[in-house]
Structure formats: C-alpha cells, structure tokens
Amino acid sequence: MEEADGNGKSMKGRGRLCCICSKRRAALKRPKTLEQICRECFYEVFEEEIHQVIVENQLFKPGERIAIGASGGKDSTVLAYVLSELNQRHNYGLDLFLLSVDEGITGYRDDSLETVKRNEIQYGLPLKIVSYKDLYGWTMDEIVKMIGLKNNCTFCGVFRRQALDRGAALLKVDKLATGHNADDIAETVLLNILRGDIARLSRCTSIITGEDGPIPRCKPFKYTYEKEIVMYAYFKRLDYFSTECIYSPNAYRGFAREFIKDLERIRPRAILDIIQSGEDFRISTSTKMPEQGTCERCGYISSQKWCKACVLLEGLNRGLPKLGIGRSRGLNDDRKKGIKENIGTKSIESKQCGTLDF
Amino acid sequence: MACNASSCQSNCHRNEEQAQEEEFGGSANSISNYNDRNLNVCVKCKSNEPISGGNAEDGRFCADCFRSNLYGKFRLAVISNAMICPTDNVLVAFSGGSSSRVALQFVHEMQDKSQKNFDASRDRSLPVFGVGVAFIDERAIFPVSSHEIDKAIQDFRSIVSALAPPRKELHVVPIENICSSSSSDGRDRLKNLLDAISDSTGKEDLLLHLRMLSLQKIASENGYNRVVLGSCTSSIACHVISAIVKGQGYSLPGDIQYVDARWEIPVVLPLRDCLTQELNRLCHLDGLKTVELHKVPYSGINGLVSSFVTLLQKENPSRECTIVRTAGKLTPFHFNSIPEKSDSNTTLATQRRLKKYNLKPNESLSSESFCPVCNSPLNKSDLLRQSNLQNHQTSSDIFGAACCSSCRFQILPKDPSSMEHFYTHLPQPLVARAKRGGYGNLSLLREQIQDCLISDSEDES
Ligand SMILES: [Zn+2]
Ligand SMILES: [Zn+2]
Ligand SMILES: [Zn+2]
Ligand SMILES: [Zn+2]
Ligand SMILES: [Zn+2]
C-alpha cells in the first residue's frame, strides 16, 4: 500500500518527507485527507482524532465499566486496542471488557472467537462470551439445519442484538462501545433515505444511542474511515480475523457501499459530508420511533407484546420456524418481491447478516 | 443465494414500520388494482388496449389514460400549491429535453383550457395567465457546434410558434450574459470564472447556479412572476443523493418542494411527481420533438450519483419515488410556498381554491441566511464561521466566509490570489446577493465600529 499507487510519480515521491513532522520519510497517503505522512504520525493522528471524538462527545465518564463488542474482526479489534491505549494514556479511568457473542457457527465463529481470546491476553482485557445456545437453546448451525439458508439473517440479527445487551447486563457495564466506522454510518444514512425510513434517519448519526434502553451504545469510530482502520491494523500487525460468515457470504458488496467507495475514490471527504448531512437534517420531532415497552415474556425492550427474539424462538420451539419472519403479504408485495429476485443477488446494503463485525 | 436482502426482513437496521413504509412506497405510484389480472385491457378505463413496453407501473394504461394520468399529476401539483394564478405571467425554462418539453406542453394545455373557458364565459372574470419560454444558450461552455445550436434554436422557434394562441415569446439568452452585458466580455469573464475552479463537480454546480440566475434575470426583465422548471422525480432523486453526498443535508429540503420562493421570481416544479421514463414516453407517444443539446455526461460526484440512482431504479422501479418521498419529509423552509400577495388582486376563485386545499398562509419569515453562491440556507456551523471573521479581511475573504461549506470546498479557490481573481469575475447579481445577505450586514456592522478598528487596510468595495 505504501507507494504502490504512484504511477511514475513514485520515483519522485521516494524521498518525500512526512508533511506533519517534516522529519521522517512519508510512508502512506492518509485516506481521509490524502496527506503524505509517516507511520508514526499516522498512528498519532488516528488515535488523537478518536480521543478528541471521545472527549468532545463525552462518550465515557471516569469510573465507568465499558464493554467493547468484540467479534474478532478488524473494526472491533482496532477499537479494543485503541481504547485500551487511550484509557491508559489519558487516564480515562475506565474498566474495559471484551464482549463476544457465540452464535454457534462452526468454521466461522469458533475461529473468530479464538482471535478474541488471543486479544484478551494481548490487551489484558477480561473477555465475556455469551452464546446463543445458552441464551436461546439453539445454535445458528441448528437453526440453519431447521430453517435452511433462507431467512437465517433474521435470526442472526435479532438474536445478536439481544445477546449483546444480555452480555452487557451480565458484565454490569454502563455502556457498550461498538466498532461502527464512518463508512458504516454514511451507508446507513443513504440506506435510510433509499428505504424511506425517516424515523431512523433522524437518529442514525447519533454517536450515543439507546440511552433510554437497558445499555446505551456508543460509536467511538463514528468519524474514522474504514480504510484507515485497515491501515492501522495492517501497520500495527494487529491480530484479527477476516473471514466472512459462512451463512452470509459477502462475496459482493451492496450497492450503497460500492457507491460510497466510488465517492471516496474521487472525493475522500464525501464520507464525512454524508455524516454531516445526516446530522444536519431538519426532521420534525413528531417523527419518532414507536413507544418502547417491555416484552411480556422475557422483559427485553419491545414495542410489541413479545419481543422479536421471543416470537422467533417460539416458532423454532414449536417447529414453526416461519413464525415472525414474514408479515401477511399482499399481492402487491409478492409482485415486488418477484422483481427483486429477478434482478439477482445484489442487494443495496453491504452487511446482510446484521453487522457480523459489530 | 444464502442471504440476500429480500429474505432478510429484520436484519441490521430494518424493522416492521420501515417495511410497511416500503410496501406503501411500492404502490404509491400506481393507481391500478392488481387483483385485476386481465393484462389486455387498460387498468383504468377497462376498454382500451394498454400501451406496450414500459415498466409495470405505467405499462398497463392505454395511451389516453396514461396521458391523462400524467397531466393529472401536473395539474394537481399546480393547483394544490397555487403555482399559477389567472393573473400570472409564467416563464417556462426550456432545454430541449423531454422534461422541459412536457412542462411546456402541459403549461400550454392548461393555458389553452383557461383560454377556452375565458372565451366561453360571459363575465370574463378569470383572465388567462401568460406564458413565455426561455432557452439558455450555453455554447460558450459546451463543445457543441454553433451550427447545431442554431439549428436547434430554429426547431425551438417552430415548436413554440406551433402552439395554439395566445402567442408565447421565446427568449434565447446566452449564459455569459449573466457575467456582462457585452457578449465577448461576458465570455471571457465566464471562462475565467470557471477556470478558477479546480473541482469538476464544483464547475458543474456553479454552472447550474448561473443557469438559475440567468432564468431569474430573463424573468425579471420581461415581467414574468413565475419560473417553471421541468425537474421530475428522477432528477430530484439525483439531487437528493448529491446534496447529501456534498454535505448539504441542512439546505436540501428547500430544493425539492413544489415551490421555491427564495428567488426574486418564485420557482415552481409542477413535474415533481412524474418520472423521467413517463416523460420520455409521453414525448414518444405524442411526437413531441426533443433535442438533447447540452447533454454532456456528468462527471465527478454528479456522474457517480446519476449512475447510482439509475442502478437503484433498475433494481426497484419505485426507488426514485421513495427517495423523493423520504427527503420530502424533511422540514421545508418558509420560502417553500408561494408568498401571499399583499394587494388583493387574487380573485375569489383563487381564494376558494386555496381554501379548498387548506394552504397555510406563509409562516412568519424566518431569519435564514443564504450562501451567496448557491443560495442555500446556511447551517449553524456556516453562520458560526461567518461570525468569527477576523478583522483584517478583503472583500473576497468576506465573500468566501459568507458561503456554505459545500461551495467553499468545491467551488471557491483555496489559494488567496486565485480567490481574489475568482471574486473579481463573479457575476454582479451574485455579488449583490452576498451584499444583501450576511456579508452586507457584516460590512454594515463594520462601518459602525470603523473608528475603533486599529487597521484600516481592508478594502470595502
Ligand atoms: Zn511524520
Ligand atoms: Zn445472515
Ligand atoms: Zn422477549
Ligand atoms: Zn385506458
Ligand atoms: Zn453554497
């Protein structure tokens, strides 16, 4: 990556100095600004920006217990590494934990959990693993065996979200930090526009969410570019797991993500501009999310009588796995579905299966 | 495929409410009843044969029903937003493309109908609104042969003169006229201005703003009180995405309503609910001649956005509608309705109509400030930067600080001497707008405290 992109210019740029310190040789072009800088300065601006985001948005208070949603993937691995660094460097006074969900997917999660277990030792952060098997009595492998490959994302997404909250409660943490990066947030802004979801549009750029729920979540990487996260992990030789979920092979990227990558290529600032737009949208306060109550069965937050997980679980246990998946569909919807299927396998979003790499 | 999005109802960020929204979106554009599975008759009149080709949405109407459905959308937009009143004089912006061709046709049909009503009525109480047509000649910028443009203008003249009376005037005005009254000087200034912009998207966008300024100038010099644009759902959907991508989320809702009265002459978008496909189809069906003149493909951000939206529309034929509907739910600005006339010239009929559609009188004017380049309302951070201006500033610095962050990034030159150069070539109406806006207030403030400022080096021309 270092100088591979200088077609012909690389000879000239060989001796170029870092434009921040003017001392060391530039080793990379910073994705966010295209400045040519050295590694050391890259580490510094990368970490310092995240520190500023944490301070300016008051993400954490001294003495808080914070769980880091750890999947073993690049985002959460870099988050765990950087947070523990910053916690020491700037005396945040936080108790950090790694929190992982074991969906029970042989060949994917068991391997990525090995990565998280190594991270536990490498960063000295206590790790808690909650498993679908323990929480729900079903592994994803068993669910897939029962329902087939179709619709399994529904289970993935719903179960994981709740599993994280339950794990966080077990750890008695005050907050959950997730590895959502700037690219993810920009994609979500676009997706909400494309799907007509004005309610979600109004809060998808919030850096802290769920303050009314059991465990607030925050996104310290809100302004951090995915490319820089990869670069950081690469230069720091961080130990992360990069295989896709076998039940959600992301062989293709979604339309929206590809669009964002194209934009980034000609105007890196576009990612930040999309987030800025999302923050600036004039949305009247009457467009709110539905009132949250609690599930009558398990006590989890839910706008319905039963939470989505309980409905799905009920279906599985009664041998009616379709329960809670489809809604009653009119002819109109069938027609639309037909169109989608004819077009093929490409979808508008990039992460089919909830966010596997939370 | 293991998990494509259509099988993934509740993954990631989706929920019920949203899915319902989408179902609604899918049917928003179709009037037809899908239980009626007889494919060989028009779904509306149930007698004629449907027109062939086309997508599922409009492919099941017969030609007559298709036409009247499309005109119906136009008419509803005009009436429910009080776009055109009998006393108005309307300028249709005409590029030769299918959207503005249909806009001209529909405005003409509406005028024709009220002319017939006028002729038939005894008391002649409702006057007939006037119509003019404007074509901005952009040969100074685009690599099109003069011969080609001259031929097209000939075509436009015959199109406009072929429309039934009342006679409509065609104004052909070169784009460079906005820069100077002399044509050759104007060309030089325009070229200098555009050459100072390094970003290709910025260049395209400035040109767009200049086009609007030109239309405003034509309208105001010729006594028009409305400007009709051919913007349709498809082009508005592209604008929504590009505005988001350029960080203009705050000002976006102001651009995409039926009415945009932030200009001296209010601008209206009566084709807001029509798709490009439908407009093309109507031109084809009715033999409305179109000429794609300045159709240089977009580059940069605008090009990416346009191919992205085309792709999405292909994947789901209601996507453009959904995009515009969602962005339409963002809170509009006070200028997004026709300002109430202070004189009581509005006829009873108009008042009745306004009442019928429950149009609210204009909200009290909010204290919005506007970017002098793109005329977008400024967001908080833009205003903050403006108020933090240092003392020792040139006019071009003050002008720059008054612009929105998007224009500052993609249009204004970064280097101070180029910025100075750029500033001196700006069209007069644009500089005037800056002076009227925050920048003017600022110089006013400065004048009041002038005696207390240490340096007198700034130039206040
Ligand atoms: Zn350096
Ligand atoms: Zn999945
Ligand atoms: Zn429950
Ligand atoms: Zn019919
Ligand atoms: Zn602007």
TrEMBL record, chain A:
Domain tRNA(Ile)-lysidine/2-thiocytidine synthase N-terminal: 66-249
Protein keywords: ATP-binding, Cytoplasm, Nucleotide-binding, RNA-binding, Transferase, tRNA processing, tRNA-binding
Biological process annotations from GO: protein urmylation; tRNA thio-modification; tRNA wobble uridine modification
Family to which the UniProt record says this protein belongs: Belongs to the TtcA family. CTU1/NCS6/ATPBD3 subfamily.
Short name of one Pfam family: zn-ribbon_14
EC category: transferase
Residue ranges annotated for the Cytoplasmic tRNA 2-thiolation protein 1 C-terminal domain, each copy included: 293-323
Cellular compartments annotated: Cytoplasm
Protein role: Plays a central role in 2-thiolation of mcm(5)S(2)U at tRNA wobble positions of tRNA(Lys), tRNA(Glu) and tRNA(Gln). Directly binds tRNAs and probably acts by catalyzing adenylation of tRNAs, an intermediate required for 2-thiolation. It is unclear whether it acts as a sulfurtransferase that transfers sulfur from thiocarboxylated URM1 onto the uridine of tRNAs at wobble position.
EC number(s) reported in the record: 2.7.7.-
Molecular-function GO term, any one: nucleotidyltransferase activity
Stated name of the protein: Cytoplasmic tRNA 2-thiolation protein 1
Native source species: Juglans regia (English walnut)
Keyword flag Transmembrane helix: no
Residues that hold ATP according to the record: G69, A70, S71, D75, V101, G179, D184
Pathway: tRNA modification; 5-methoxycarbonylmethyl-2-thiouridine-tRNA biosynthesis
GO cellular component annotations of the record: cytoplasm
TrEMBL record, chain B:
Keywords on record: Cytoplasm, tRNA processing
Lineage of producing organism: Eukaryota, Viridiplantae, Streptophyta, Embryophyta, Tracheophyta
Keyword match Ribosomal protein: no
Similarity comment text for this entry: Belongs to the CTU2/NCS2 family.
GO annotation, cellular component aspect: cytoplasm
Main function: Plays a central role in 2-thiolation of mcm(5)S(2)U at tRNA wobble positions of tRNA(Lys), tRNA(Glu) and tRNA(Gln). May act by forming a heterodimer with NCS6/CTU1 that ligates sulfur from thiocarboxylated URM1 onto the uridine of tRNAs at wobble position.
SUPFAM superfamilies: Adenine nucleotide alpha hydrolases-like
Any one GO BP annotation for this protein: tRNA wobble uridine modification
Gene Ontology terms, MF aspect: nucleotidyltransferase activity; tRNA binding
Compartments, as annotated in UniProt: Cytoplasm
Pathway: tRNA modification; 5-methoxycarbonylmethyl-2-thiouridine-tRNA biosynthesis
Name of the protein described by the UniProt record: Cytoplasmic tRNA 2-thiolation protein 2
